[in-house]
Amino acid sequence: MLVNVINQSKHALPSYQTSSSAGMDLRANLEEAIILKPLQRALVPTGLFIELPQGYEAQIRPRSGLAYKHGISIVNSPGTIDADYRGEIKVLLVNLSDQNFTVEDGERIAQMVVARHETVEWQESVELTTTERGAGGYGSTGVK
Ligand SMILES: O=c1ccn([C@H]2C[C@H](O)[C@@H](COP(=O)(O)OP(=O)(O)OP(=O)(O)O)O2)c(=O)[nH]1
Ligand SMILES: [Mg+2]
């Protein structure tokens, strides 16, 4: 799909790393590096502005390598970019490790997956259909 984008960053547009990747890696666009102390969070700019077609959203997800090696995650994971959002895409990183982590300019900090979504219209009802699960949840199907 074609998506309008304005790239005000110093870096190339995000791209898929392999032909069947679901996500495109997003790079930090920084004047200077950010040092994240343990449990500290920061809203990291990307310099990207996009215009998604109606009925689509972009999800901002953590990168597993950063999470595994450095404990870097995203506070609001997955972040949601609405189709009508025209501001800069930012990534809310958090350092879940016990050591400082430096976010460098140009570093791949997250990945963005574009997905379709439905728009719900409520149909108010007095009862719902009966199912095998019923109201069971939170581990109701087994001890572990
Ligand atoms: O990780 C994120 C999450 C959101 N946004 C932008 C795009 C999104 O369309 C907008 C609003 O996000 P959200 O609805 O999650 O935030 P909110 O706290 O509900 O704010 P608002 O009242 O503006 O909707 O902020 C980002 O740039 N990065
Ligand atoms: Mg909102």
From TrEMBL:
Record keywords: Hydrolase, Magnesium, Metal-binding, Nucleotide metabolism
Residues holding substrate: R63, S64, G65, N76, T80, I81, D82
All residue ranges annotated as the dUTPase-like domain in the record: 12-142
InterPro entries: dUTPase, dUTPase-like, dUTPase-like_sf, dUTPase_trimeric
Keyword Methyltransferase part of the UniProt annotation: no
Listed GO biological process terms: dUMP biosynthetic process; dUTP catabolic process
SUPFAM superfamilies, per database record: dUTPase-like
Signal peptide positions (record): none
Pathway assignment: Pyrimidine metabolism; dUMP biosynthesis; dUMP from dCTP (dUTP route): step 2/2
Pfam families, alphabetized: dUTPase
Catalytic reaction equation(s): dUTP + H2O = dUMP + diphosphate + H(+)
Cofactor needs: Mg(2+)
Enzyme Commission identifier(s): 3.6.1.23
A GO MF label: magnesium ion binding
Function: This enzyme is involved in nucleotide metabolism: it produces dUMP, the immediate precursor of thymidine nucleotides and it decreases the intracellular concentration of dUTP so that uracil cannot be incorporated into DNA.
HAMAP family: dUTPase_bact
NCBIfam families (alphabetical): dut (TIGR00576), PRK00601.1 (NF001862)
Family listed: Belongs to the dUTPase family.
The protein, known as: Deoxyuridine 5'-triphosphate nucleotidohydrolase
Native species: Adhaeribacter swui
